[in-house]
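User: I've been trying to design a sequence by hand for this structure and keep getting stuck. Would you show me what you'd pick, starting by listing the structure so we're on the same page?

Assistant: Good idea, let's start from the same input. This is the structure you sent:
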């Protein structure tokens, strides 16, 4: 587990999220701590398959 500061794509608040890199290469949703909207987390891998960075987006349906 890794802590990353992310910015909510709905309300713009920054908060610290725990990232579970066992899901790396995939995505999952986690509710914003501030506005409780579902944030889509995408876990990006580097060229060696290790943890690279996290991007966040609004959940699409
Ligand atoms: Zn929010």
């Amino acid at each position: 587990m890794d802590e990353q500061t992310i910015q909510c794509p709905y309300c713009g608040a920054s908060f610290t999220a725990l990232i579970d890199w066992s899901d790396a290469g995939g995505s999952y949703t986690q509710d914003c701590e501030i506005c409780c909207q579902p944030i889509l987390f995408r876990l990006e891998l580097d060229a060696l398959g290790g943890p690279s960075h996290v991007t966040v987006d609004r959940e699409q349906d």
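That's my pick for every position. To get oriented when you compare it with your attempt: The chain has no helices and five strands. The chain has a mean pLDDT of 90.
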